[in-house]
Amino acid sequence: MRAPVRFLLLATLLAGAAPALAAEGMWMPAQVPALGARLKADGLELDPAALADLSKPPMNAIVSLGGCSASFVSPEGLVATNHHCITASLQVNSQPGRNLLRDGFLAKTRAEELPAAPGVRVLVMEALRDVSAEVLAGLGPRMSGEARTARMEANRKALIAACETSPGRRCDIRSYFGGRQWYLQRMLEIRDVRLVYAPAESIGNFGGEIDNWQWPRQTGDFAFYRAYVGPDGNPAPQSAANVPFRPGGHLKLATGDLKEGDFVMIAGFPGVTERYRTLAETRAYFTDIYPLQLRLLSEWSELIQREARTEAERIATASARQRADNFKKKIEGQMAAARTADLIGIKAAQEKALGDWAARPANRRPHALAIASYDSLIDADLAATRTRLVNQTLDRALLLRAARDLVRWAHERQLPDAQRSLGFQDRDRQALVDRLTIIDRQYVPRIDRAMLEQALAEVRKLPEASRNLALETALAEVGLDRLYAETRLADRAERLAWLDRPVEAFAASDDPFIRVALASYAADRAGEARAREREGRMHAARTAWMATVAAHAATQGRVLYPDANGSLRFTWGQVRGRALQDGVAWTAFTTPRGILEKETGEEPFNSPPRLLAQARAGNWGRWASPALGTLPVNFLSTTDITNGNSGSAVLNGRGELVGLAFDGTLEGMLSDWHFDDTITRTISVDARYMLWVMEKVDGAQHLLAELGVEPGR
Amino acid sequence: MRAPVRFLLLATLLAGAAPALAAEGMWMPAQVPALGARLKADGLELDPAALADLSKPPMNAIVSLGGCSASFVSPEGLVATNHHCITASLQVNSQPGRNLLRDGFLAKTRAEELPAAPGVRVLVMEALRDVSAEVLAGLGPRMSGEARTARMEANRKALIAACETSPGRRCDIRSYFGGRQWYLQRMLEIRDVRLVYAPAESIGNFGGEIDNWQWPRQTGDFAFYRAYVGPDGNPAPQSAANVPFRPGGHLKLATGDLKEGDFVMIAGFPGVTERYRTLAETRAYFTDIYPLQLRLLSEWSELIQREARTEAERIATASARQRADNFKKKIEGQMAAARTADLIGIKAAQEKALGDWAARPANRRPHALAIASYDSLIDADLAATRTRLVNQTLDRALLLRAARDLVRWAHERQLPDAQRSLGFQDRDRQALVDRLTIIDRQYVPRIDRAMLEQALAEVRKLPEASRNLALETALAEVGLDRLYAETRLADRAERLAWLDRPVEAFAASDDPFIRVALASYAADRAGEARAREREGRMHAARTAWMATVAAHAATQGRVLYPDANGSLRFTWGQVRGRALQDGVAWTAFTTPRGILEKETGEEPFNSPPRLLAQARAGNWGRWASPALGTLPVNFLSTTDITNGNSGSAVLNGRGELVGLAFDGTLEGMLSDWHFDDTITRTISVDARYMLWVMEKVDGAQHLLAELGVEPGR
Asked: Which residues on chain B are in Cβ contact (under 8 Å) with A13?
């Protein structure tokens, strides 16, 4: 075998060992043009500059649902997203005997479309602007933490107020790089959103919790909403007079075969990553904070499973349980992945490199100082995080939270709008209305009370200084029996009636929840003041530390992307399986074979008979992949996403829709802290599987036509 | 995605879904030229006719070790085979304090080469001739079974005697297609075989029983012998005067990169397959005979593990235990694979198709009759098989078997050579000497006795008619204490001295083993006579049945290949991983990553420190695969092999050596009964791993030079 003859290209293709394409990075749209050469080399066929232009395709089709991502896929406002992103809308439209969650839903006509859950919004990004200078204006080195926080908040409120001048626009300012940069985004906020189509749960959530965060995967995690606006084209409350929204652009379905090795890109709204955490923070999360969260979530989920006995109760609590289970599994996965990959070791090495660099004489004064200053604040911040996690469990009791929100709203309303706290201005009123409204669909008194008892047991373990003793005392005085028996807040009209009433009216109320909320108000505000002081000090220290990180990266020629913060981001990579242990690999695609292999007839492996029949017959119609010789169901890619990207459009190099991202894998969860493209994979539902289910299983031919698919043979 | 654009070729390459190349078939060399068009289409670059010519490369380099396959790899008689094929030679050269099995062996010079175990032969195929007409001459439809057997045996002995005229040639006649065809093979029988090189057991048997029949696999299952002949070029007993054999041809190492999808072919000596068994036989094996064998092997292996307490005892019993474990795991694998694949259902469908065809009016008389006639004999044949398996456990007692062989030999010697039984002619004397000699290295009295006790307990469960009561009585009379205490057969000189003594001398002996053997002789022969009658009747019925099978296949245009029978065969396919459950696959190659992943420091995952250091350093030298970007260790291919193929050269399309076949996988074991190229894979050690171990781990540079490898950088 002497000197091996080199057949590099062919060999590379055959062995599937193609050079990894860029995968790490949740890039801000404005950063993309500078990455153009790499993008083109990796397979982008569009002009890279197009990806920074929010007014042009494909970016003008990308929308946020607030917590999920989505995209316009027709000129008539049809929105594609994940099934698991519309669960609440299926839930609110369900009732015993008409279980849309289980059976799916298809509107045969526009008239049959159902209102989405209260609070569901389609947010269309219109503008994104760097407002760092404005947000940070007026900060001084000797300001107190509270003063810093107050100044930045005032700056932000002013910017937002100036931005939200057109009707139906929502403006929003987010922090990047630990508060070093701030961007203002202006979004069209579409409030009339309707449910168009969702497959049965046994397709849309095939595999359920068992397969969640797992590969191999065969989940049809897709669904469609439609966005409606007033006849004048501006967002409007739900109304029969509304008309479908005509987006600036919409995604077109890919026509070529998507295959292993192909370039793919994803634009969406990733929620939170922690890639710039220090070693000390990382260690605290993995040894202390995550285990605490895990326990709180486990106990919550177990409580719901134990207490939700009827179908109605299970429907009411489904989304809470799903949220708890999903988050719990994610934390478990992150902890296991961190152990396997030695995250602490990776962080220690990064920190040592940074520290060594900062210790050089030329760097010492600004950088070593910044590191030391940040380090000195971390412990107190982590302790506050732990306390907050425990106190937040009280919010699981829906009426208690509603009462506290109402009391807070009453107090804030005493101030002019511009002086109120963020989240309690007039612009936030509708969100509060929605929260108060949806309680109807989620509230089960016995279960709510059990959650409150569980939360109380938890907060009582905190040190006294961290507890809201006024709240606890008030609760103890009224007693939980009376609390739930005598409250009138379980009635939606009653809850909404309290909105906008003056503080005096609350003081005169004998509703036990309102009395408890009033009693706890002062302590709540005192706790908030302490948090604002801490937040301001942390901001000063963290931005200095991030400046050090950025300076260090610059010396190495590395361009930094910010941690995910719910804002619009761009990532690219390729369709790619993954090596497991030596000799075994995940393939890039799954197929209906896996559905048949997993079928048990029992949830969550109980596909609809019609799907099973079509799959057993191999009736793939037009939707088989020539390369696979069968129908693709889900696929893996080396793209960099996290929670919040759920529902994101996956596009090929021509910007055409090839699938919807919906999950990652347990092993890959390390990516919230550290990205490694040999282990992290995005799981997407292949567009061809969506179309096949619509055509062969659910008979949604009219939607296929709307998507531009010609009638089948 | 409408009408998918078709990129068939590229798509196919990328997805690894290339059309399967021919894989089923253990073809006789003479059948290969007729397959030439398929071979060329699949990637053979040689002239297909060359593969039928035993006097030309590459076929003149392929040799048998009797039970294993091997090949010449240098003009100086260097023979490459599997590590597990030379275990006995490592064992006989080991002693406490010098454990070649554990530590490996490398002769730095020819003078340091060690004699292989007694009985080891290198058999060089010189000629292969169809002698069906001669073997079947004189058979008549109304002959008794015994007469048929005797007539064929006489025909065979005459043909063999006529063939074995040149010195050092061994001739041999084997049955094909159930005795319808017979081929005479003439082989040069090289008797001076020396051990040249074997890596440490932790390389050569990496993974041990845990990984046996498994993938992923990282076993360096290779070793080298050298063949020596007398100064006149003819085979000779071991002697310092002997010189390395100069083979007619030897294999050259491949220089190109072997990659997934590449054409590969294997020539070797597969032992036994059962692909033409009927439904009734198949059912009996899987429900009755295999479970029995499994139990007998398990109990044997457990006994050895329990009783072999010292290092010396473990060395002595190593090959017996390895044989038992290997066979046991194979049977378990076959049983599991048969269940998974529904072998019984497959056989039933095949049999129904054959029966339906045979039932047509035109076919009824010859074919339906042949099927019925064969069916009528099967039950008795299967019962005899079960009895034989149990009685054979007595042969595990080495001195009992030796005594019975010696007694039989003495009786046979009373006849002229041509009239003696096959296996007891003068030409078989050396094999007997070897068997009697190697007992020295394997005999542990306490363990031998325990095996005999175990066997006796087993035979006592048989129906009386199936037992050798004379033997049992004689054993009971002498008692096992005296048997082992008083025998002198434990001494090699004493054993060999008995060879060629007359029957009268045996009758006068007071050695308890000889007395037992003498007592059992008449019953042994009576049992053999019954077997010969059955065998003759089965031959008549089975050949008629096979004629029916062949006629049926001919109507479908199918060419049949014969079941494996230890003769030279040819198979081809491609380097190819395998799909597991949907979304998961075996990759075609393993790499040193797997060695490091499995390393525990404990047997069988205790690689030598030097190997670990080189692997951790990624010091692959010239041996990395460009396609893989690392060193290939083992690879999978869709070739059709079985036991006996161990050590077979794996060749690329140019006839160059790319590896040595050494195993299959549990799931693929069905192939002894039914070949399915979606599940059956051959496991081979990549030649590049062999060369890397030799160069970087064991410092065998002089052997690399002999293999034609130029000195490394």
From this structure: 13-14
Average pLDDT, chain A: 93
Q: Name the average pLDDT for chain B.
A: 93
Cα separation, A186 vs A54, whole angstroms: 11
Nearest residue on chain A to B252, judged by CA atoms?
Answer: A1
- Indicate yes or no: CB of B1 within 8 angstroms of CB of A583: no
DSSP H or E run through A548:
helix A512-555
Q: Which tokens hold the place of A266?
A: 């994803």
pLDDT above 90 as % of chain B: 89
Residue A362: exposure state from Cβ atoms within 10 A (0-12, 13-18, ≥19): exposed
Closest residue of chain A to B595, computed from CA coordinates:
A582
Give the span between the Cα atoms of B695 and A173, in whole angstroms.
Answer: 63
pLDDT at B438 > cutoff 70: yes
**At a CB cut-off of 8 Å and minimum separation 6, what does A393 contact?**
A296, A300, A451, A454, A455, A458, A459
Whether the ipTM is more than 0.90: the answer is no
Joined tokens for residue B423: 């296996």
- Residue A628 with chain B: CB contacts under 8 Å: 15, 17
In chain B, which residue's Cα lies nearest the Cα of A712?
B2
Structure confidence by residue, pLDDT tens digits, A84-105: 999 989 988 998 889 999 999 9
State the amino acid at position B115 in one-letter form: P
Q: How far apart are CA B650 and CA B267, in angstroms?
A: 7
Answer whether residue B198 shows pLDDT above 90.
Answer: yes
Dist. CA B424–CA B153, nearest whole Å: 13
Burial string for A621-659 (b: 16+ CB within 10 Å, else e) reads: ebbbbbbbebbbbbbbbbbbbbbbbbbbbbbbbbbbbbb
Residue B421 tokens read as 């039984």
Taking a C-beta distance cutoff of 8 angstroms, is the pair B573, B639 a contact? yes
Q: What is the largest CA-CA distance in chain B?
A: 93
The β-bridge partners of A635 are: A589, A684
pLDDT at site B326: 84
Read off the tokens for B142: 């109304």
Tell me the pTM. 0.83
**Listed range (A248-257, A662-671, B44-53) with the worst mean pLDDT:** A662-671
What is the C-alpha separation between B73 and A519, in angstroms, rounded?
A: 91
Calculate the alpha carbon distances from A591 to A218, A613, B391, B407, B679 in Å: 7, 15, 52, 66, 18
pLDDT tens sequence across B334-365: 999 999 999 999 999 999 999 999 999 999 88
For B330, residues 6+ apart whose C-beta sits below 8 A from its C-beta are B213, B643, B669
**C-beta atoms of A253 and B217 within 8 A:** no
Catalytic positions of A are 84, 221, 646
**Residue carrying the six token digits 């990064």:** A350
How far apart CA B219 and CA B690 sit, in angstroms, is: 10
**Helices marked H in A583-647:** 592-598, 609-616
Q: Residue B259: which of A14, A577, A586 has the nearest Cβ?
A: A14
Q: How confident is the model at residue B22 (pLDDT cuts 50, 70, 90)?
A: low
Out of A57-66, A406-415, B360-369, which region has the weakest mean confidence (pLDDT)?
B360-369
Token reading at B36: 């030439």
Task: Round to whole Å and give the CA distance between A661 and A685.
Answer: 6
Task: Please confirm whether the linkage preceding B58 is cis (ω < 30° from 0).
Answer: yes
Say whether residue B713 is in contact with chain A using an 8 A CB cutoff.
no
